[in-house]
Design goal:
Length: about 450
């Protein structure tokens, strides 16, 4: 059960929370400085600020505040250590999973505002203890008068009105404290955080995305998405059918055949999202997937982070994947430049590192047989390249936000396939789903292909 903490939603109150955080970071730096000086060391200011204690203070406060403040931390954590110090990335990565929950009184107030007085009469049971809590809202179980088991997603109060100021204030804190490197230009990422938060805070939009996924998967019996209850859905409440599958990680104890079939389905789904539909659910949190062992179905949850990808970008991503599978290093570099990973002014060593990283990320796609995710050291090799790019070369750029969200998707998918110890023919799955992988010009992202 998530820890309860009342949400402060006034601008002054939220700014005060960040002010206390800044004071805590400064105090932590002073204490660390005193310890090191007593040992005869002469630490730099950066060393004093980037302590595990300060990284923990930052992640804990953002988790308590939720909303845009927490989302900035989540977005920054997606760089996987390429731009941020590893210890800070590690603490921020917790924000993808952890958040405090609203107390009962606040929950009742939100529902009264959304559904009016007497809202309780629509249910035979409403469970005030949430089953999940995240950056934007939390989820409760309920049973309707007609016996339907429901999941009710409730938005935290004041989240929408605090988005822009939260993002700006957190950015100022990170710059002032030195927790983010001075050379890092993360202004585009901050603007993306605002845009993403405004979109996620509209639950009607999420309901629409859920419906679009349901249409795409209507004839695919491997997947199930919850039905939306329109009469109980507003901008601040999203009410859906409750899906009763087991956590997706439970598949790790299933037979190899069942694990591999589910893993292949998840990979195929991700490819279709990007290259067929241009509609991508970019949050790879394991909690967004359930598995029904009786119906052999993967159940999909949480479509707040769904993003549309334009045909032009999808075509460039297709070209990049094709180059990584069949091209040489110059082909990969040219396609990486078109996507936004590289700039003509980048040093040759940095360009080569990006090519190495992209080739590593697409290694499963080049394997001509089954690729064993559970036995692969791919994550470690990619991490070594990233550490070299940050510490040795001290040069990096943030990819376009749309691409960065795909990093999040791909990284989460690889982690899940590794957890499931999947052994699947990745190259064989890609061939029919992305026609003409060896001939990028033939790719038509808007072409209609059967699911």
């Amino acid at each position: 059960m998530p820890e309860e903490r009342r949400i402060t939603h006034s601008r002054i109150g939220r700014l005060s929370q960040l002010g206390r955080l800044a004071g805590g970071i400064a105090g932590g730096a002073m204490a660390e400085g005193a310890r090191r000086i007593s040992r005869g060391q002469r630490p730099s200011v950066g060393d004093l600020l980037l302590t595990p204690g300060n990284a923990r203070r930052l992640s804990d406060r953002l988790s308590e505040m939720r909303g845009a403040a927490m989302k900035v931390g989540q977005l920054l954590s997606m760089d996987s250590g390429q731009l941020l110090p590893p210890e800070l990335s590690a603490h921020l990565s917790r924000l993808r999973e952890d958040a405090h929950a609203m107390p009962l009184g606040q929950v009742a107030g939100v529902l009264r505002h959304a559904w009016g007085e007497g809202w309780e009469s629509q249910f035979t049971r409403f469970t005030f203890t949430p089953v999940a809590a995240a950056s934007i809202g939390q989820v409760h179980r309920a049973v309707s008068k007609d016996g339907r088991h429901l999941a009710v997603k409730i938005q935290y109060p004041g989240i929408r009105t605090s988005i822009d100021s939260d993002v700006d204030n957190v950015a100022a804190l990170l710059r002032f404290s030195g927790l983010v490197p001075a050379e890092m230009d993360f202004a585009p990422l901050l603007q993306e955080a605002k845009s993403q938060l405004h979109a996620e805070a509209d639950y009607r939009r999420e309901a629409s995305a859920l419906g679009r996924f349901a249409e795409h998967l209507a004839v695919d019996s491997r997947f199930e998405v919850p039905a939306v209850i329109d009469t109980l859905t507003t901008e601040q409440t999203l009410t859906m059918q409750f899906l009763d599958g087991d956590p997706i990680e439970s598949l790790a104890d299933a037979t190899a055949l069942e694990r591999n079939e589910a893993a292949a389905a998840l990979l195929e789904l991700a490819l279709r999202e990007v290259f067929d539909w241009g509609l991508v659910q970019t949050d790879p949190n394991f909690a967004n997937y359930l598995y029904s062992p009786h119906r052999k179905r993967i159940q999909l949850l949480d479509f707040g982070a769904t993003r549309d990808y334009e045909p032009e970008l999808r075509a460039k991503l297709h070209d990049l994947l094709a180059a990584c599978i069949n091209g040489n290093d110059m082909d990969v570099a040219d396609c990486a430049m078109a996507v936004g990973y590289l700039d003509p002014t980048d040093p040759a060593k940095y360009r080569d590192s990006v090519v190495t990283l992209l080739r590593a990320a697409t290694e499963p796609a080049r394997s001509k047989g089954d690729y064993a995710f559970g036995r692969s050291d791919l994550a470690e090799r990619m991490k070594d390249t990233v550490v070299d790019m940050r510490l040795d070369q001290k040069f990096a750029r943030i990819p376009p936000p749309q691409v960065l969200f795909l990093h999040r998707k791909l990284g989460g998918l690889y982690l899940l396939l590794s957890r499931l110890r999947a052994t699947i023919p990745v190259n064989g799955l890609i061939d029919p789903l992305i026609p003409a992988a060896a001939h990028p010009a033939e790719f038509q992202p808007d072409a209609k292909r059967a699911v």
